[in-house]
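Box 4.2: Ligand-aware structure prediction
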Amino acid sequence: MQQLSSVEKAWTDALFTGAGFYREQWPAQHFTTAPLVGPDVALAVAALARGCGLDTVIDVGAGGGELVGVLHRLDPALRLVAVELRGRPAGLPRQVSWRRRLPDRMEGLVIGHEFLDTVPCPVVELDPDAVPREVLVDPASGSERLGAVPRTADLRWLERWWPAVRGETDGHPAGLPGQRAEVGRTRDDAWADIVARLDHGLAVAVDYGHLRGTRPPAGSLRGYAHGRRVPVAYDGSVDITADVALDAVADRVGGTVHRQRDLLAADGPAGDRASPADRLRELTEESRRAEVRAAGGLGELGWVLTARGVVAPGPA
Ligand SMILES: C[S@@+](CC[C@H](N)C(=O)[O-])C[C@H]1O[C@@H](n2cnc3c(N)ncnc32)[C@H](O)[C@@H]1O
């Protein structure tokens, strides 16, 4: 018999409870994020922190500790704190603190790198009459059905941030039946909770996402496993994710949105590299640097910067 629940609940269970994906798996086994490509993100984070006069970096959703590990090598004087549901990975420098829960109060640069896209949210679809209805799913089979009209807070969020899927009330043009949206209210709440703990410093949310003019008409709920995009499954074997409404997150916390390829410094390491080994190293670095700046790829990641008592720098 089908056990229907909201996508938000099935998604939460699949990632975070029992044998959930993030209880059992290391992210790096399944997908490559920019900190795994090379030191560019760490270089930018260290420059942002030092540029704001900050000596602490708190990495929320630190995965396998890759970013804090590189930060420690680049700038050993930085105080580094990783916040992660998983236990401390072997081999992390002992100077890096590892904790499961966010500190109540924070000072420094707090970063969530591909953290918000793992925050589950309700999924809404326009029914044949273009009325928004919450999508329900049977986690065992993945089969879906449309449920009730979403709660008021979600309708309000859609109205402001994803009006095509709000339906035809209040003068908004209706979207087409079948159009979908992920209600980003839960991501806004999650990031607002983190920023509210920051007494002094810079909050940096880095994620793939969209802005009001570029929402994907069918939504973006999808799965990843073993380096490949796969169908969404709710059994804990797959990372379930959806792009982040970056402008909504920024608006909620008074932040600004920047594109990664604009924010990362353009210049590469200088030096006279004559030997074939040096030339090979240079080519490898060039390709790595291009990868994190690529148009249509990692370069499109959005950085939401929110300053508390510091001046947030603009693009390099
Ligand atoms: C997509 S991975 C990103 C890992 C890493 N930041 C990177 O970019 O490579 C998201 C990580 O956030 C962690 N996470 C999710 N919710 C969390 C929470 N509430 N507190 C701490 N960590 C969390 C997951 O366990 C997972 O390691």
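In the box above, the bound molecule is S-adenosylmethionine. The two ends are 56 Å apart (CA to CA).
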